[in-house]
Amino acid sequence: MNKTARVALVALLCIGAAACSKKQEVKPQPPQPEPQPQTQPVQESNKYTPADLDTDACLRQRVVYFDFDKTEIKPEFQEIMACHAKYLQDRPEAHLRLEGNTDERGTREYNLGLGERRGNAVSDALQANGGSASQLEVISYGKEKPVCREHNEDCWSKNRRVEIVYTAK
Amino acid sequence: MPRLKSLFALAVLCLAALVAGPAGAQALNVDIVGGVKTATPIVVVPFAQQGGAPLPTDVADVIRNDFNRSGKFRALARSEIVESPSRGADIKFATWRLLKQDYITVGRISDAGGGLLRIEYELWDVNKQQSLLSQAFTAPAGDLRGVAHQIADQIYEKITGVRGAFWTRIAYITAVGLGNNTTYSLIVADSDGYNPQVVARSRESLLSPSWSPDGTKIAYVSFESGNSQVYVQDITTGSRQLVAAHKKGINGAPAWSPDGSKLAVSLSYVGNPELFVIDMATRKETRMTNSLSIDTEPTWAADGQTIYFTSDRSGRPQVYQMPAGGGSPTRISFDGQNNANADISYDGKLIAMVQGNGNVYRIAIMDRSLGGQVRFISPGPIDDSPSFAPNASMLLYAATEGRRGVLYAVSADGQVRQRLVLSDGDVREPAWGPYRQR
């Protein structure tokens, strides 16, 4: 009887999870087309410099967060992808390490794979925005480096992340 | 070293009986709840000491704890042992029949000269008043725990017909300290958590220890270089070799083949994690899988013919099997939302895995002799790393309690659990070693 109740509960959870994951399936937005080149000519002075890493509001954001078991870059992080990709374009000598991390759910080695997949997603997005593969390195820590150790979604959402680390500016 | 040992000493905190299924521990002094199975009552009388200095180990106590952990036996508590015979001729069987004991073990320890002890014991059937075993060991006092485990193994095999696995070792990872000050250690200890020894230490994560089949080496993953790399280390000499260190991607999930000649690993330098088998003699890597998914956590069947692994090629992680010589993988887990990190019993009948449903991850055992029937042996919610004892009578697994990682040793029927917890820090990634050779 207890078991039946459990099975029912599990079934409910399944339905709940399925419903949730559907809601979360947001299609990544294609990068916004640049404004007309005639009206906004690209100026040399618009190039990023290393000082911008500390001052530019966009470049200062170095963490990309993910939904549970997902590797898609959410729309709100597209702007960050674009500015870091521009930095890579502006500074060919720059180099990034993309550190993939997961929440604590699931096995350690599988989470290493999941963290890498997230790192690769960020790498792909940066390349799609103009970064070069030779400037990018992906490393996965899986669930080995949590920033938060509580067992709840609020904490898990902070751990499902890719950290952008500038190894050369 | 003594300070170190005490720091890493595993304290046995509780011995609890529980019903497979919902969380909720019960004291072991009661018979197994649910009446599924009755553990065999056995008395282990304190061994008589004939002269000499006080001994560091209560041999009978070690044997009793082994029996109780196994779930197969219920050892009479020492406080209820009303008489103390030390040889068969002195046993008053009526006393033990009255206490409803099926078997009795008596023994004695004497000085064998040259710094050695002579440990003798006898096993008797209480109802038949018949001698079943009579054996003697010679060992230094420092090895008494090892002798006690060997006695427990002999008695276990005599009564159950299954080889005992108490005289074995376990490996696990500890993490002590917080954040960047964490120290990770690969530890080897006796199967009951005693005698912990540090095999390797690192400021970066260590994971996935795997015993070589002869028990002399452990393969594991270390992040000490920054990225994951697979090492093989001799646990007696400490010498080690780097066996998988591709600069790009994951080098992870080592698993020895049963003949010790190969190491299965998961490598992602090819773009995504794929299974490879490394020939340990030639170091040649042979690619085993080819998919766009995560293929990892390989483990070999005892006959060396089949490799089991985790793959999310169907969407969520599931357990697959494939011929060790290469071929198409077949999915074998269909119960629950996802399944991963399989471990196979020596006879191939039981497959332990981590099953995830919602936010609850528990250890499930699939019984292939029962048409793939699945039962849970842990309550969750974040359990990992099931590892069978070499006789499959028990498993180790990792659990998280509060912010702390702990290990549990659980009888294969899920009825009896013992918690192994570090006094200060996390313990995780258990791996049960092979039988030891005397």
How would you sum up this structure, described in words?
The complex is a heterodimer of chains A (169) and B (438). Chain A is 40% helix and 15% strand. Chain A has 169 residues and is an alpha+beta fold. Chain A has a single domain (48-168), classed as OmpA-like domain (60s Ribosomal Protein L30, Chain: A, 2-Layer Sandwich). In chain A, strands 1-4-2-3 form a four-stranded mixed sheet. In chain A, strand 2, helix 4 (108-128) and strand 3 form a beta-alpha-beta unit. In chain A, helix 3 packs across helix 4 (108-128). The longest helix of chain A has 23 residues, at 2-24. The radius of gyration of chain A is 19 Å and the shape is elongated. Chain A starts with a helix and ends with a strand. In chain A, 34% of the residues are buried. Chain B is mainly β and 438 residues long. Chain B folds into two domains: 39-160, TolB, N-terminal domain (Rossmann fold, 3-Layer(aba) Sandwich); 168-435, 6 Propeller (Neuraminidase), CATH 2.120.10.30. In chain B, 10% of the residues lie in helices and 47% in strands. Chain B has helices at residues 2-8, 59-70, 93-98, 144-160; strands at residues 10-18, 25-27, 40-44, 48-50, 73-75, 103-113, 116-125, 130-139, 168-176, 183-190, 197-202, 206-211, 217-222, 229-234, 240-244, 251-256, 262-267, 274-279, 285-287, 295-300, 306-311, 318-323, 330-331, 338-344, 350-357, 360-367, 373-376, 384-388, 394-401, 404-411, 416-422, 426-435. Chain B has a six-stranded antiparallel sheet with strand order 2-1-31-30-29-28. In chain B, helix 2 (59-70) crosses helix 4 (144-160). Residues 1-36 of chain B have low confidence and may be disordered. The chains are: A alpha+beta (169), B mainly beta (438). At the A-B interface, helix 1, helix 4 and strand 3 of A face strand 24 and strand 25 of B.
